[in-house]
Amino acid sequence: MTRSKARQTKKALVPWLFLLPAVVFLATFLLYPLLSALRISFSEYNFVYSEKPVFNGLTNYIELFQDRHFMISLKNTAYYTVVFFPLFILLALFLALLLNSKIRGINAFQAAILLPIVVPLSLAGVMFTWIFSQDFGILNHILANVLHLPHLQRFWLGDVETAMNALIAVGLWKYTGFGIILFLAGLKAIPVELYEAAKVDGVNGWQNLIYITLPNLKGSFSLVGIWGIIQAIKVYDQVVVMTNGGPGTATSVLYLYAWKNAFTFFNMGKGQAIAFFTAVLAIVISIVFQVLLRPEKG
Amino acid sequence: MRYLSSNQKLPRALLFLLGVLVSLIVLSPIIWIILTSFKDTKEIYAVPLTVWPRKFVWTNYLTVINGLPEFPIYFVNTVKATLGTLLLVLPLSAAAGYAMGRYDFPGKTAVNAFIIAVLAIPYLVFLVPIYIMEDILGLLDTNLGLILPYTALNLPLAILIMQNSYREIPSELEDSARIDGANAFQTWLLVMTPLVITGLAAVAIFTFVAVWEEYMFARTLMFSTSAHTLSVGLPSLQVESKTWAYGTLSAALALSLLPISVVFVVLRKYFIEGVLRGSVKG
User: What is the pTM of this model?
Assistant: First the structure.
């Protein structure tokens, strides 16, 4: 009796031995920080002046909504998301359809079109800062001297009207490849028989797209959509590099404002509250999205 | 596009042209940086701009290599962070993934739930406590101070990928290894792990790219030039120094994009595999 119990304990021990090193890392650098972060978000805690976090309940969260700069950052993040999201989906879908065709050179096209995925976003920011530059930027040069539309020239990153759109363009350049990969997998999973049957019925190309391809991509739309929305809500890298929130507060976004609160003003409590607010926002939106696009059963 | 029937010659040619055009548009920022890196300073700031360099010069690359001590430092720091993280993530995720994929044990559901949950949480949430912790432990501004959190942040997805890889192996192989007298450790390392190389490759390239480009943690936890990585160092040089002409900067950019682009083009298949297996990640 005891021996078999001992053997059972030993048997349960084996998987835990395999897990242990990973669990130590997860506990130290994710679980503990998560709990600690929660505590800090409910505390008054200035890293420079405060000895340690002092519990102040929901104060940090309530104060956020009386903070004009926070509301602007929330609005800017919403704008970024609303513009980024449809463009991201359409571009990714269009390019996935292109890369799913059996044309010559498809491997080279795939490598080229997906390459921005591995370009660090901060370095993409440096590249695009130069491209958007007022005097020596290639974009203004093309507008003025190639397309002969000099009135369209802008101080792209210094103009309240255009700065955010420029950041969105960089985000799209970097991230569309991920959407393409997810859509491509969805396209490859559609049974060829569906198209063959349609061919017998004399269905043309566009009807194929609308009646077979798109309805069968529902799962991919859900994945790509959630992924895109989360990337938009946590936009940060290129904003720091290209505008750092400016001009004025025109491109201040939630992540940037959270970071500045925590590491420029050392108001850790407030920074952490914004971080949690953003995280909850991202999670709630992705759950809603998932429910809306859930494939019908049966 | 599969919905176009195969005997349409004209659309095929059009699609090919479209492919060329889109590829050029996507690559144009990189092409522009490379062209700029071969121009001399006078040409870079010429009005009107020239697109194709009048004369190709290597000066900018020589400046980066000889006259810019920061660049090799950033490069080495990035390589150290990347390799250090890989050396930890690969064995840890293989071991944990094996336990999660092949065993039933008390606590498994909790571990699984935690892994899925942290995948949905944006990194920023963890940053403040990790900063405070590293401040106490004296890890700020050290290579280890990046490698440890990077390992933790990349582990959940890596474990998930490895868990699925191990689960797909038929159990006969494991059983026969046991009958031959192999212990659990030997079975894992010598019998099972050689069968999940594709999964490991996906984890490796995914982690490689994630670490190589990480910006927020690297910017916050490392503040001196000697500890910066490429993704933080190059943008900061652009801001800080007036002597930094764009010629030098574009050469530095081209050099820092080269290794990751080569890795990507060669191992693209595994990266795509990693994206697909990990697409639950937010």
Answer: 0.92
